[in-house]
Specification:
Elements lengths: L3 H15 L4 H16 L1 E10 L4 E4 L8 E4 L3 H9 L3 E3 L10 H7 L6 E7 L5 E10 L5 H24 L2
Antiparallel strand pairs: 1-2, 1-6, 2-3, 4-5, 5-6
């Protein structure tokens, strides 16, 4: 498995994450780690605001806050399907939102998403990685599932306690 050494580094990452008790300090660490492990250019962590029926991220590399309805885009499709999505040719995917690329000036060549579940099995967010050379594969999805589960307790704590 190509991520074997990466799991050894996960304990160190977890300790560092616990020192970051807000979205603004913790989300960049999560993003940086996910990008490094998988080899993606960008990472966004969308938070699912169930009450407002929207997904938002303040962590989208070099982009200001993105807000979309929770039933739109590949992240919305991820919530609907309750499973990861790979789109190695996103512009042909029915649920891809090319207007986000247009608004940001960034071109998405491939994308992988994974739902982030809380302890009640509700989706509290979506982890999204963009633009990996050669495209994303099933091994990337396995890691994304593991990693989303790994960070879910932290994200649930931050969301519930606003620490």
């Amino acid at each position: 498995m190509k991520y074997q050494d990466t799991y050894k580094k996960l304990a160190k990452f977890g300790r560092e994450l616990l020192d970051n008790t807000s979205y603004s300090s913790g989300l960049p660490r999560i993003s940086k780690y996910a990008k490094e492990v998988i080899g993606a250019q960008r990472c966004s962590i969308f938070i699912n605001d169930i009450a407002k029926k929207e997904l938002w991220t303040t962590l989208a590399d070099d982009v200001s806050k993105i807000v979309i309805p929770s039933d739109k885009g590949l992240v919305g499709f991820t919530i609907k399907e309750r499973k990861p999505i790979i789109a190695n040719d996103p512009y042909t995917h029915l649920h891809f939102l090319p207007e986000i690329d247009k608004a940001t000036g960034y071109t998405t060549t491939n994308i992988v998403t994974a739902p982030i579940f809380n302890s009640k099995r509700e989706i509290i967010g979506v982890l999204e990685l963009l633009n990996k050379e050669g495209g994303f594969d099933n091994e990337d999805v396995r890691f994304m599932i593991f990693f989303a589960h790994y960070v879910s307790g932290y994200l649930e704590l931050i969301a519930n306690e606003k620490i």
